[in-house]
Amino acid sequence: MIFSMTGYAARTLDVGQGVLHLELKSVNSRYLDFQFRVCDELRASELALRELFSARLSRGKVECRIILSAAGAAGSAPALNLELLCRLRDLEAQVRRRMPWAHAFSVNDLLQWPGMLDEQTPDAEVLSARCLELAGAVLEDFIASRAREGEKLAAVILQRVTRMRTLIEEVTPLIPDAQAAFQEKLRQRLLEALGSVDDERIRQEVAVFAVRIDVAEELARLTTHLDEVERVLQTGGACGKRLDFLMQELNREANTLGSKSVTSVVSQTAMELKLLIEQMREQVQNLE
Questions:
Q1: Helix-, strand-, coil-residue percentages of the chain, each rounded to 5
Q2: Average pLDDT, the chain
Q3: Are the C-beta atoms of 286 and 6 separated by less than 8 Å?
Q4: More confidently predicted of 168 and 264
Q5: Judging by DSSP bridges, how do beta strands 19-27 and 60-69 pair with one another?
Q6: Straight-line distance from the first to the last Cα atom of the chain, in angstroms, rounded to the nearest whole number
Q7: Cβ burial 168-198 (10 Å sphere, 16+ → b, else e)
Q8: Sequence-ordered strand ranges (E) for the chain
Q9: Which of 79, 84, 168, 222 is most solvent-facing, going by the fewest CB within 10 Å?
Q10: Rounded Cα gap, residues 277 and 222, in angstroms
Q11: What digits encode the pLDDT tens for the residues 61-94?
Q12: 14-36 pLDDT, tens digit each
């Protein structure tokens, strides 16, 4: 199975005193890079989460966001801390006796005072265990989303491979005749320019040049590299770096093919091959 480095998944879980929301998303990267945005109650779980994700992921810039919200809590409304409220009332009275112009507490001020609302918080160990349970479920969704994206990318790459094979098959039969015609044209020009040189010497020079413009090796290597691209995609797994190397090799052979070209047909084929390779390379950059 081929995996993209782009993926997204999110789930929520009711933990009794609140609702836990965990979100995973990633983009491409040369290495595996994590960025955690975790609520204070779960900061101690970051190492366990990193180990959980690292066991299943190999590349990508992964962002993990965890929020603990009381919005969906199943318990009753939080109670006021009456002892703290009485202390604040007494302190306010003392202040106003000495500073009558001081503003009185508003209801909003009192409710936002640290410790005023007696909210029940889940046990740290229980909360951590539930978080890892939720992270495991989100990770499965996340990997599935990367697999779906990877399947689409692999299909695009294979389409380009098929097109490149067609171009190679079309141009291969044309090359011998094109090179023979070019060699004859070159021989005639040499005869015109160097009429006094013997014909055997001209044939030798033309033969040497023919070796230099022979592209059979480049076409064979292109086919071999395309075979390897298909093999790697069929094998699956973390293959992005291997495919990126193959794109470099394909581009090298296409460049050589263009530089050795002696006809417009071969030059045009080399340019189209380079365009297809660049399109594949852009897709490969997103594979794990």
A1: 65, 15, 25
A2: 83
A3: yes
A4: 168
A5: antiparallel
A6: 11
A7: beebeeebeebbeebbeebbeebeeeeeeee
A8: 7-14, 19-27, 32-38, 60-69, 79-80, 117-118
A9: 79
A10: 11
A11: 999 999 988 654 444 566 777 888 888 888 888 8
A12: 887 788 999 999 999 989 999 99
Largest CA distance in the chain: 123
- What are 27's strand-pairing partners? 61
> Are 39 and 49 contacting, i.e. CB atoms less than 8 angstroms apart?
no
**How many residues does this entry show for the chain?**
288
DSSP class of 41: G
Whether 7 contacts 146, CB under 8 Å? yes
Predicted TM-score (pTM) of this structure: 0.71
38 Cβ contact list (under 8 Å, min separation 6)? 45, 46, 49, 64, 65, 66
The tokens for 150 are 């990877």
Q: In 3-state terms, what secondary structure has residue 108? A: helix
Give the DSSP letter string of 178-213.
HHHHHHHHHHHHHHHH-TTS-HHHHHHHHHHHHHHT
